[in-house]
Amino acid sequence: MPVRMNDVMALLCHISEQQQMKVAIKHSGKGAIIAGAAAFLGGLMGGPPGIAVGGAVGGLFGAWLTSGQFKPLTQIIMELPPVQQQKVYDDVYALVRHLDWTDATQLILLVTGNVALQQKVAAALINYITQELRAEIQYGD
Residue 63: its pLDDT value, please? Predict the structure, then answer.
């Protein structure tokens, strides 16, 4: 990974830690399997009405089971595949390209020292997470 990209990723991690951002991890596949299995079992036990009841109960159980699972945004950023890292890098680099920095620490200081720029970078990160990854962000503990 080029040095500039590493610097920007470190900046994004710093901002996400500072704002205590967490991302909802959606396991819709698990929920769908649970709903399908419940509908199947309901069908075996109660015929067509059992499919409806089993699907409804399984869907509710699957939704409950898979909701509320959050990971720190820093972890998500570092686990992004290179193509996705490049996309978020491009979005953020457009905001910081006018700055002159030599390493990640200096970039972080320059951005956090400018409240308006910090807000723009945070907004670009939030936009990427919500639009591209279709994830939900939670702040704080």
Answer: 66
